[in-house]
Amino acid sequence: VQLRRPGGPAGERWHRSVYLDTARREVTVLFADMTAWGFAAEPRPVLPAVDSVLFVVDMLNTALGSNGQLWLDDIQYAR
Hints:
The chain is an all-beta fold. 0% of the residues lie in helices and 18% in strands.
């Protein structure tokens, strides 16, 4: 899960990895647990400046050409 703040060529991003498998479960990602990814002026996300939430599937743990489904349900934001 990534948060993005506009600026620079790719913007500033913070992330937190979440492992997904076939089991349905609730996942909580705390903004305070997110860390800078690449260049970010702040070590933690500046929430009022964030313009995007991204759900990224990388190829570190996913084989090229594989497929699956990701269901997002009952999303809540809280401080």
